[in-house]
Amino acid sequence: MSSTDWKEEKRSEVFESTLKGLDNRRRVDKAFSLADAKSSLNHLYILEGNDWLGRGELGDIVASATTAAYEHFIFEWIAESGAQDNLGEP
Hints:
This protein has helices spanning 5-28, 34-49, 56-81. The protein is mainly α. It is globular, with a radius of gyration of 14 Å.
């Protein structure tokens, strides 16, 4: 195992677990909407820019994988519904 393998493993673990959680929430919580997911993604974008204390390498990996999972989830939801939508608007 190389010294960087842990990074990809962590990125994949966070991405998959976040995506699984979002899929589960959508299935179980009928009040959970695309607008809710977009609002959370916008919050993640803000948090990504608020790194003035420094998250460190692990924190950066977790933040970017979580954001990527939300983006993927939202794009899939939009594609599934066949709607034309803008990711930036809740």
